[in-house]
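User: Please predict the structure of the protein below. I'd like the answer in structure-token form so I can feed it into my own downstream comparison script.

Assistant: Understood. Taking the following sequence of 272 residues as input:
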Amino acid sequence: MPEIKRAATSFLEAGGSWSEGGGVLDSLRTAGVSLEVAATAALLQPDEALASTLRVVYPQYAGIGPESAAVIVLFDQLLQRPTLAQPAETTRQMALDIRLKRDIAAGAAWTVEKINPLTSLGSPVPLTAAASSVLSNPRITLSEPARLDIGTGRINNNVLQIMLGLADRFTYAVQVMHTGHIQTVFPHPRLSNHAVGRAVDIREINGRRVVDDPFNNPTISEFVTAAALLGATEVGGPTDLNGDRPGFFTDDVHSDHVHVGITPGDAPAHLR
């Protein structure tokens, strides 16, 4: 359902692109967005920013239902600041949890309902050797939100060890870990492993985006198999690797990324 992603990215591009004298609210109101919904995008306008240009890096499904959906959008934002500020231009990368809705009975299109606030795992802790190794590994491309999560000691050490093991065989790009990810298993209230630093989503493997050829790319199958052998207890992706075998899963939401997570007490996926 690409129209879900189009609605989410169009909303962010409108809210994150404004010139001096304007702002997020003005841009979204001009695009026809209600004041209530536009107000949830206020974090796109940091203090002292004079102008902004937003470029989407990758939109990832986080949940798809008949009348509600969630998309995690990773984007770069170029901010213009006062000339006395150093530097005058800065770029930041963020991942946001965008919620959408539609009224099927009325034949309505998908529209953004809100941007969920960013969450925190709590106080940072000292880095482990695995965390330092992941941060410096040239075979792992980390989004800035993921780098923040790892750099503040917020990611489970076993997940980091799996990431290092995967980097021995593959190069890959991390979309999101905790910051910016939906905190529950959509649409259920059950807490996601992302919410507690025990999961990672990967958007690209060996230089090829998962979404570009999700069903005919043998590298994806090799990658998810390797993740399970390294100890992941839940491995999701665009293809059904082992039928109904517990630990491996696929659905529409995971048609554009690979999910690797750990649930304490569960056996690795390849052993279940």
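That's the full token string. The mean pLDDT is 92.
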